[in-house]
Structures are given as C-alpha cells and as structure tokens.
Give the backbone structure.
Amino acid sequence: MVLNDSDNRLIAAIQDGLPLSPRPWAEVGERIGLSEREVIERVRALQEAGYIKRFGIVVRHHELGYQANAMVVWDVPDERVDEVGDALGRQRCVTLCYRRPRRPPHWPYNLFSMIHGKDRRRVLDYIDQITEELGLQEIRKAVLFSGRRFKQRGARYR
Amino acid sequence: MNRPLDDIDRRIINRLQKGFPVCDRPYREAAEALGIDESDLIERLRRLLDEGVLSRFGPMYHAEKLGGGLSLCAMAVPETELDEVAERVNAFPEVAHNYARDHKLNMWFVLATETPERIDEVLAEIEAATGYKVYNMPKQEEFYVGLHFQL
C-alpha cells in the first residue's frame, strides 16, 4: 500500500486525537474533503497495512497512581540478548522491552525494559523477582527511576 | 482538584487502552460493550482528557512505516541546569516526551521526526542549543510492547 495525498491529510487530521462526537469520521471527512464512508475505508486500510497500530487512549500513568516507573537496563552478552529479551518481555510487570546500542563509557547497557508500579518499593520487588526467576544475577544492570516529567505528548508525523 | 475515578471511568480506561472500533458510530459501539450510553462515554472521555488523566485518544501510528524516525536519547546535564536545558530540549517539536532519571545520564527523551535523516540533524541542533552531548539509542530490536495499565 502506498500512501496518497488524502491518506496523508487523514493521518495529519487525526494525529492529535479523534473528535469527541457521535460521528467522528464524518467530522474528520468534512475537514479533509472526504465522505464518512471513504474515511472509514481509508482508516481500515491504514490499519490493515500496519500504518496505524491501533486506536485507543494513552494514559498518564502518573495520574493513575502508577507513581513509580523504572527503566531497568541490562548489559547482556550479545549472544544472549534475544533469549533474555524474550524472557523479560514475557514478565507481567514488564511493559516495554527493547534492544538498543551501548554507548561506552557511560552506557554499557544493551537491553532496556520498563517496569511500572504503584511505588518504588514494589518496582524494586518486581526487579528482584525477575532477576531471580530468570537467573540474571550475574548480569550487570541499572535501575533508573523516573524523576520529574519535563514533557509528555504524542509524537507528530505530518 | 480532579474528581476521583469511579468504576465506570476505570472500565473505560482498561478497555479503551486495548482498542477502539472503526465504524460510523464507534462511541455507541464501545459504550454498548461497557454497558453505558454513547453520550456518557463521550462526556467521560472529554473530562478524562481535560483533567489530564489521559494524554490522548486517537491512533497509534507505526512511526517507521510512515517514513518517520524514532529514537530514545539521553543527556548528562548538571542538576542545577536541568530546568533550563529541559526547556531548550522541549522547545523542539520533535521531542515527544522527556523525563529526568536518576543516573549520570539524567535526561531521557523520545525523538520523533518526519524522516529518519532528521534524527541526526535534530540531535545536532539540540547539542548546539544546549552545549551538551546527546546519546542516541535507537531501537534495534523489539521484544515486547504492551504498555497497558490495569486499574
């Protein structure tokens, strides 16, 4: 699927959010000169082709009582990173898990996982449990709790 | 002071983090599944957004597929300059979110750009604007993405 001009207009028109009205796609269509039917078809096509991963809400976890969030980073030998990444990703309390490049000398870590919890104590307990359960005691890690939030908003694409 | 969340708010949040239907009356369809009225769902979403419980309600795009660049970046900034540097970093529209973290690398932000090439350009611009090095740590492999908060 190749994006055309109206796809790009559509992507731009909804990136800040869906209209909060009973016929949101009709409203979007009016803005970009398409019918409601056309908009819905294009949105479905964009979703099927994977340009749109899903629709939904994004929560501000802090406001919901998830006061603590830790980025837990691991220095995993390269040959084990897939195995450990998959195992971490299967843990209930892990919400994101990515491999990223090391940046020596300050940053020897190549596996990033995100763990949220109601408070720091609970997050630290999760980390201890995971470390033990997956046998990661020998792997160097660091726990970076988040401090202040300087900015949170969605990315912009068009 | 925000009103505390009630059970219906919590059910809305739990459910709509997982998805939202694409059809001509999506609020009605989602509201039915939640056992509430369409207008009630719309009002509650508006309030949760206004109060900042939700940061957005809309599509999650696949940045790379849309031809954009996406990366996680970090900087080591002296504590006394954190606010000033954060202000300069946040002034870039490409900076999606930005958190302080307790490490020598103490400022972490996500960059989202229209093209992959823009990442390096914006990094250089941020370095020039702040005087500090930016460590670029783009995703190399994704093992799990399920950011979802059960209330």
Remarks:
- The helical segments of chain A are 5-14, 24-32, 36-48, 81-89, 120-133.
- The beta strands of chain A are 52-59, 68-74, 94-99, 111-117, 141-152.
